[in-house]
Amino acid sequence: MDNSFLQENQDNLKEILRPFQQELKQGQRLADFIKKCIRSAERDDFLQLDELLNSKLAKDAEQEEKLSPCKPFFTELREYSREQVEKYRLKFIEDLTQLGEEAGLTIAIDFPRLTLLKGIYGEIDFAARTTTINKKVLKSIDPRRIVTALTRLKKQLYDRPFDPQAYIDGFYETYLNICKKDNLTAGTPVPIYQFYLEYVISLQSVAFFSNMDKSKFRGYSLEQFGVDIWRYCEAGIGGTTNGMQLKLGSGRKSLWLIDRTGERRQIGVISFLKEDNS
Asked: Taking the alpha carbons of 213, 158, 125, 257 in that order, is the dihedral positive or negative?
């Protein structure tokens, strides 16, 4: 028997089977979707129900001829879940604000976003049951857990001793070392990536350079970098001890930091210039 004969018949049968399988697959997907809606309604999980009933699958189910009787029930459940989510949102904001005040935190909420001081920001995702704070995902929307996470981050970024004069003088020393190493004239902007690396190296102890074990490494996160620049700017001390002013500018490779106005923006270069007293 010619193999081409068998191959041709196999291909023809596959072509017939393909749309049938696709139809079965779509039918199973819609059936699973309706089961999820039923389970959510049984648990009165209005957050998930609201997400499900406003999805593309809900529209697909309503447009499917055999499932079209679901439409009026979907409409009623959609309205119910929307109302419950709105009530929950208002209660959530109230609880988060109150718990924050009890913890000494002033949380600004523009739902779903929140901010606390400069450099601490977050976003609440009811549907996913997550809260993202400075890009770290907290698998919860419990206001208590959110306040605990915010308190911990505030303590880490803001509650340690900070001497703005010593800080900016150390910055300037790092900048001068880069200029000297790269044979640059003082006042020349240097890439922020290079400066950040050199500054972190300057923070390390003699013990670290003797034995570069990670346990001896002193970390300095980008979050801390941005907050410390802001704390220096907010202190209003007028520059370095010898009257040099920090200048931040844009560039091709940049880092998200906090500028003099307290806004997050991309900084690409850093330099120091003589303070203008005129």
From this structure: negative
Q: C-alpha distances in angstroms, 110 versus 75, 122, 204? A: 29, 10, 40
List pLDDT tens digits, range 224-274. Answer: 999 999 999 999 888 999 999 999 998 888 999 998 888 889 999 999 998
pTM for the model stands at: 0.73
Helix 46-53 to helix 3-42 angle (10° resolution) is 140
CA of 256: how far to CAs of 204, 251, 268, 272, in Å? 23, 12, 9, 19
Rounded-to-integer distance, Cα 278 and Cα 270, Å: 23
Structure tokens at 224: 């801390």
Q: Distance between CA atoms of 202 and 211, rounded to whole angstroms?
A: 16
Q: Which residues contact 252 (CB under 8 A, 6 or more apart)?
A: 268
